[in-house]
Structure of RND multidrug efflux membrane fusion protein:
Amino acid sequence: LFTIDDRTYRAALEQAQAALARAKTQASLAQSEANRTDKLVHTNLVSREEWEQRRSAAVQAQADIRAAQAAVDAAQLNLDFTKVTAPIDGRASRALITSGNLVTAGDTASVLTTLV
């Protein structure tokens, strides 16, 4: 039926995707550091405290990935909401708004008529 200007939502989606890529990179680095300290802690070349910090950072980085993925999903959903479609097939018999109008919640946009 209608399309809402989606430029803001596309930009938000791109930002969320970039944050997800950044989180994945950070997680990869944190996991590599954790794996290195796993080997070194057994030979007492790294303190247990540092080992725990590296393991904790790797777990936190995985949580950051999940949070960033949720932000991408939310941004994609918001972008999808910029296309307003009718739940049934039909024709708009009367358009009560035109391109460029400011529409608020509760406004009647058009009357959908089912053709039999």
